[in-house]
Amino acid sequence: MSLNGTIHPAFASLRSLETIFLTGNNISGAIPPALTQLPALLFLDVSDNLLDGSLPKFGRGMEVWAEGNPGLNVSSVSPPSMPEQPRLTIIFVVVAVLVWLPSGRLDWAV
User: Domains of the chain (ranges plus CATH)?
Assistant: First the structure.
């Protein structure tokens, strides 16, 4: 989207906000610690921007994607190694649609 600028702390006043998706822009500065106080926030994706500083501590159950920000300390990304989740989901879906036929061979369920 080619967004420029910073993440304004006023986002924290949006109490029902569940997802913030800002990946692949030119957003700079720090992630406002006030975002950790959003009660409904479940997912924050700020990957591939120009953010710096340290990642605020978010509560349990919160997904934060922040890779690709050269100046951001992402050692505390919660949960770590987020790219693994989609692969596990795909494997589960593939296994769930295989059906064993009486003829003794595998086939796809329709």
Answer: 4-82 (3.80.10.10)
